[in-house]
Prior knowledge:
homodimer; mainly alpha; Arc Repressor Mutant, subunit A; Tetracycline Repressor, domain 2; DNA-binding
Amino acid sequence: MSTKDRILDASLQLFNEQGERKVTTNHIAAHLGISPGNLYYHFKNKQGIIFALFERYEARVLNILQVPTDRALQPLDKLNYLQGVFNGLWDYRFMHRDMEHLLLADAELHARYRDFFRLCLQRVEAIFTGLEKAGIIAASEEDIAGLALNTWIVVTSWFSFLRCNLLNDEADAISPELLQGGIYQVFALERPYLTAEYQDVMNELQRRYMPRPAWLASR
Amino acid sequence: MSTKDRILDASLQLFNEQGERKVTTNHIAAHLGISPGNLYYHFKNKQGIIFALFERYEARVLNILQVPTDRALQPLDKLNYLQGVFNGLWDYRFMHRDMEHLLLADAELHARYRDFFRLCLQRVEAIFTGLEKAGIIAASEEDIAGLALNTWIVVTSWFSFLRCNLLNDEADAISPELLQGGIYQVFALERPYLTAEYQDVMNELQRRYMPRPAWLASR
DNA sequence: AATCTTTTAGAGTAAACACTCTAGACATAA
DNA sequence: TTATGTCTAGAGTGTTTACTCTAAAAGATT
């Protein structure tokens, strides 16, 4: 593997584990056993590393959010979208943790991210429209627009929500188990729009992700 | 006004304008025309200032989120809750901008914030329960729990969402006009649960906060 | 006046960190 | 061998920033 890719992989790992802010470029180099000079030979600056990681993340998410053109959407499609997106979110979880800071520090990334957001929003609206056409939900265009935006907000804020409100110490206590609560919450957004025909099957899917009663209790 | 209060007011202003990260303690002192030593006489450290500001914020929000015991909830109550909360959010907007960082840096604040969150969530659930008892919405307990949590997430993430996805440059372009979109979004969460009797009046309220078509367009 | 407490000034410091610079190793081709 | 372009090492630097320390001014009390 090229040094450039090794730098990206190590950066992603360290950023996810400790947060972008706490990981210095010297730290990344030391972790790989290379010199800071070498790192800066391959990347113009720290933002360059982050930009490259964003490109990976973007490609991954856009690859997931596609509506099939040859068939109608099915209940399980919804689940696949959510699992795919949440897995991507997990693998690049450092990103939404400090998005505002990252974007403020790099105007080019900011512009790119805005385009990414708009495209995602369109795709999510297309998915809800597909669910509507398949008779799974009943919702107006206005409903769908609101639903899509709220979905974006809940999905992109979920990890931040967990870290602020559920973790007790600095340990990486965010587990896949907690991730499930996010899927449940997104299902909850859509649930009141379900048609009578599909209520049972979708509720059954949602219930699989119901958080344990304990996850909100004080410990 | 005491020096202590002047420090808090100046800190709040500067934090809101520039973000907590960009405002140094020397900066705050210079802005007030006092010495750094003086600032540290009144506050143990920068986190002490933030903690005191959080106490103000917490008191303000909890004062708003109360369910009247002597009467049933009315449609306008919902609006008042939202306006009150969003105004508080605006006045302390630096806080949710960097909440994860603030909490990670101060375990005492983190514990306090978790308690605050839990209390808020209970209060929001109580409000939805009140709306249900008043016949304004029809929702199960499980619906209400999901609704309350999604409401919390959308409300606390709204400014961050705006800064990431709508601002073009570093100028303070977040206006009260954009704030309205947040109120609209929270209404959208609740809308599918409205009873037939109240749909018209609530939709009318929500429509006042409908964002202009332009606010999502590219510029 | 004298003493004690509270408040303020302001120079200074230690640590952190993104990034630079020079020089040398290594590979490839003429 | 020599020349050329690519990659790497590692010491070092300039800046930023939260916070300290000493001493003095201001205020209160007897």
